[in-house]
Amino acid sequence: MPPKNKVVSSPHRDEIDKLLLEGESSRNVANYLKNQYNEIISYATINNYRKVHLNVTKEAKKIYNKKRLKGSQKKPKPKKSKTKSKSKTKTQKLAEKKVKLAEKKSKSRVDKKAQKLVGNIEELDSIILEMNEVNLEIDETLSQSEEIDPIKLLQFKLRCKELEIKAIKIKYDILKDDDSGPVINVNINEKLDRLKRIEHNVNNSDE
Fold first, then answer.
1. H or E segment at 164?
2. Is residue 54 a contact partner of residue 17, using CB atoms and an 8 Å limit?
3. How far apart are CA 75 and CA 32, in angstroms?
4. Chain Cα centroid distance, residue 110
């Protein structure tokens, strides 16, 4: 069995979690532990701990994809085979209990952050859906109206489409590293180039 990450058994794990989830770099946390507690944990070890135990984005992807696929059948969880554990001393049991408690706290913090990120992704979905309904075509009856400037109307619609594409890009940047493949697949640059060409034609026609 590989040795546990040093952060997992650190007496300052709770504080390390808070610092990392607040955005502190692994290097800064390593320096803080050394200066404050004379505890030596390399920034590479802390970084590995962050990736495995505090991966908010990965957890958010799981929650988001689970929501999207909640109608599909759930695979039954494989039953864990019971293995006889070696007798442990009271000190070992107490140490394991502390680690499990710390692990529970870590998971709770990550879940909270992940839920917030999922909320942001769902807000992007809402923007994408709303802006996707905007039609770039101009109704002939509207173009003949004196109250409505068809050029300004089209420019407004182009802004809506640009907002849609930006929302798609932000969402893609969040979800692109998912092991199961990207959740969305769009050619962002091609869409933006098309919008620029349309806007260029609109501006030229206004001269």
1. helix 150-175
2. yes
3. 44
4. 12
Residue 114 has which token pair? 């992940």
Q: Could you tell me how many residues make up the chain? A: 207
- 3-state secondary structure (DSSP) of residue 157: helix
Maximum C-alpha span of the chain: 88
Query: If you ran DSSP here, which 8-state letter would residue 148 be given?
Result: S
- Exposure class string for 67-105: b at 16+ Cβ within 10 A, else e: eeeeeeeeeeeeeeeeeeeeeeeeeeeeeeeeeeebeee
* Inter-helix orientation angle 90-132/56-68, to 10°: 60
Work out the pLDDT band at 47, boundaries 50, 70, 90: very high
Cα-Cα end-to-end distance for the chain: 74
pLDDT tens digits along 56-90: 999 999 999 888 887 555 555 556 555 555 677 87
- How big is the CA angle at 19 (ends 41 and 124), to the nearest 5 degrees? 130
Cα-based distances in Å from 38 to 5, 30, 84: 18, 10, 38
